[in-house]
Specification:
Number of strands: 12
Number of helices: 11
Helix content: 25-40%
Radius of gyration: 27 Å
Distance between the termini: 40 Å
Strand content: 15-25%
Largest sheet: 5 strands, antiparallel
Length: 317
């Protein structure tokens, strides 16, 4: 069904762009096979109006013209649907090249390369090589999760999805019905922000905890998408980046360098252990669990209890 609609929209766009005069509904119906197969005039009218709205939403400028007989016609003038010439200086071209290079090791490598070729044809200076190595660092965004591509497409197309999700404190995954808003990479992990229909609230999901296949469920969102989806800020607050308290932990010597980098105080205890004071915010327990036996929470008591609960859940699952 999706392929048939895409073909129908393409045929309608070509008809509207290829004509020099406005075409009536009757003429468009006679020119497009899918419209000829419509069962009735009402069915055709509904299909045509939806297609016309979809093309306009995609950015095609469609004019409505009424002739002397009062008949309404439609056309899309080429000059109204043509982008201005693209001109890029060396710095802009380098920025685009760097962005494309980031995706070369990810699932969007093909799309990034294709977009870059089009930009080069449209104006990237010939003496600028977007893939030339400009330093020792190689920019990459790792994408290993199978859920990334279907969720990316669902965010783009505004399609609700359902998937099985295992919380860090749960032994088994549970189904989640989500209206996906945006994907973002933070500290090497991908996260999805969206509206959780079951809980009636905004939620952020770590893609590595999605199990099984991501399935589409119906069309249309029930809540508006925010103008700015603050995935990183939300994840940061859950991960203890936004903190108003301190926690005291014991850390094995030579381990837990990310924790050491966040520590406000470090004291050597001997016997292979150090004592650290680190910022304490919502979600710090989930981060500490990742260091397993290398970390021991001393205080506060509620953080220690949360870490123990998570470790027990991992042991059960």
């Amino acid at each position: 069904m999706a392929i048939a609609k895409a073909e129908r929209l393409m045929n309608l766009a070509l008809c509207l762009l290829g004509t020099r005069r406005p075409l009536s509904k009757r003429e468009l119906r006679e020119s497009i096979e899918a419209y000829l197969e419509a069962g009735s005039d009402d069915s055709f009218n509904r299909m045509f109006e939806r297609d016309k709205d979809d093309l306009r939403e995609l950015g095609l400028v469609i004019e409505t013209v009424e002739n002397l007989d009062g008949e309404v016609g439609y056309l899309a003038r080429r000059d109204s649907n043509r982008l201005p010439p693209i001109t890029l200086d060396a710095e802009e071209a380098a920025a685009l090249g760097l962005a494309a290079k980031v995706w070369q090791q990810a699932r969007l490598a093909g799309a990034a390369s294709g977009a870059l070729q089009k930009l080069r044809a449209a104006g990237i200076p010939e003496d600028v090589d977007p893939y030339e190595a400009h330093g020792a660092l190689e920019p990459r965004i790792p994408v290993h999760e199978a859920a990334f591509e279907p969720l990316m497409l669902a965010c783009r197309d505004r399609r609700p999805v359902v998937f099985d999700y295992r919380k860090a404190t749960a032994a088994h995954p549970e189904p989640r019905h989500v209206e996906p808003w945006a994907l973002e990479c933070w500290r090497g992990h991908w996260y999805l922000a969206g509206w959780d229909r079951d809980r009636g609230a905004e939620r952020v999901f770590r893609l590595s905890r999605i199990t099984g296949r991501v399935r589409s469920r119906g069309t249309g969102f029930t809540v508006p998408v925010p103008d700015v989806v603050t995935v990183r800020e939300t994840v940061a607050s859950w991960a203890g980046e936004i903190a108003d308290r301190s926690a005291l932990i014991r850390l094995r010597s030579g381990a837990g360098y990310p924790l050491r980098a966040k520590a406000t105080a470090v004291r050597e205890l001997g016997d292979g252990w150090d004592e650290l004071e680190i910022p304490y915010g919502h979600g710090l327990d989930a981060w500490l669990v990742e260091f397993a036996a290398d970390v021991l929470v001393l205080e506060p008591a509620e953080l220690r209890a949360d870490v123990v609960d998570r470790l027990r859940a991992v042991a059960k699952g």
